[in-house]
Write a structure and sequence with these properties.
This is Ig-like domain-containing protein. By secondary structure, the protein is mostly beta strands. The chain has strands at about 5-10, 15, 20-30, 35-40, 50, 55-60, 65-75, 85-90, 95-105, 115-125, 130-140, 150-155, 155-160, 165-175, 185, 190-195, 200-205, 210, 220-225, 230-245, 250-255, 260-265, 270-295, 305, 305-310. The strands form 5 sheets. Strands 11, 12, 14, 15, 16, 17, 20, 21, 22, 23 and 25 form an 11-stranded antiparallel sheet that branches. Strands 2-8-7-4-5 form a 5-stranded mixed sheet, with no helix packed on it. It binds calcium ion (CA) (2 copies).
């Protein structure tokens, strides 16, 4: 009876980033015992018969891609086993990470002081990404803080609850073979909240300011007549409208840079505070206006403005 056996490259891993690997060998023979083995790379000649051992260090052929290693075993009587093999993908190429993006999606809910900013990232690699490391640094007006880790894992976005302020984010990707990308950094992002009573908002006549439970900063401005407008002038690359939603609230038209962009309905059967009801984003920062126009919805004409959030 010839010996039987198997081999495992790098403990059976699917990927390696190093052509130098350890091959584990497990062969048995009834009667004579395994005395020797031969190992070779696909496309190369066998190294010849050598003494059997349960582990050898081995060099895979250069160049990224799948690598198959073959082995055969021989017993003391000269019986030779069938050829066995194992395959691993050699990947020595770093992934390429893309700069994280920062957004405030419509449908989000502001905290009482913090803003739920969504940070998203990606990377490319021929063999796929194993994990990401995402870090954040904060500007205090004179210096940037040290990078702190806000996410580690396989997902491609996270939501970070941030006080208004200035931030930057960076991501490093690790591929399935363990190669790390360079860090890719987001643009510096300022998260700014504009309260309903800011001088940056021009109101048509008749808007009233009132305390409202749950409002961002405790107050909203509201109007109940069709045609009333509130216009925010700002510089940024994203603007969001924050309002309550309630059974008593109606519809408003949103105009961006003078052009009708959406109709939002502030109705909800149960009251919700600090909802992001509309967001518009651009690829770079610029000067824009956003106008909220009350539409005079029958039975629930009131429209509230709680705040705007600007990313720039
Ligand atoms: Ca790679
Ligand atoms: Ca407010």
């Amino acid at each position: 009876m010839p010996p039987t056996g198997s081999i495992q490259i790098a403990g059976g891993a699917d990927y390696t980033n190093n052509a130098q690997v350890t091959i584990q060998i497990n062969a048995t023979d009834r009667g004579w015992g395994v005395s020797s083995m031969a190992i070779w790379n696909a496309g190369e000649r066998s190294s010849g018969w050598q003494s059997y051992s349960e582990s050898v260090s081995w060099t895979l052929p250069a160049g990224d891609g799948p690598k198959t290693v073959y082995a055969s075993f021989r017993d003391a009587a000269g019986n030779t086993s069938e050829i066995v093999s194992d395959t691993i993908v050699l990947d020595t190429t770093r992934p390429v990470a893309k700069a994280p993006t920062v957004s405030l999606p419509a449908g989000s809910t502001l905290g009482t002081s913090k803003i739920p900013v969504r940070v998203a990232w990606s990377a490319t690699d021929a063999n796929g990404i194993g994990s990401y490391l995402v870090q954040m640094s904060t500007y205090d007006g004179s210096a940037w803080s040290a990078w702190s880790t806000i996410y580690r894992g396989g997902a491609t976005s996270t939501t970070k609850h941030l006080a208004p302020g200035t931030y930057r984010f960076r991501v490093q990707a690790t591929d399935r073979a363990g190669n790390e990308s360079a860090f890719a950094s987001s643009p510096i992002t300022t998260v700014a909240a504009v309260q309903e009573n800011s001088s940056a908002i021009s109101y048509s006549s008749g808007w009233k300011r009132t305390a409202r439970t749950g409002a961002y900063g405790g107050y909203v401005k509201y109007h109940t007549q069709a045609g009333a407008t509130a216009t925010l002038r700002f510089r940024g690359r994203s603007v969001s409208l924050v309002t309550p939603k309630a059974a008593s609230l109606g519809k408003a038209e949103i105009r961006v840079d003078g052009v009708r962009a959406a109709i939002v309905d502030l109705y909800a059967s149960s009251t919700q505070a600090r909802k992001v009801v509309y967001t518009k984003a651009w690829s770079s920062s610029g000067s824009h206006t956003v106008t909220v126009k009350v539409l005079g919805t029958s039975g629930r004409p009131r429209v509230d403005i709680d705040a705007f959030v600007i990313l720039r």
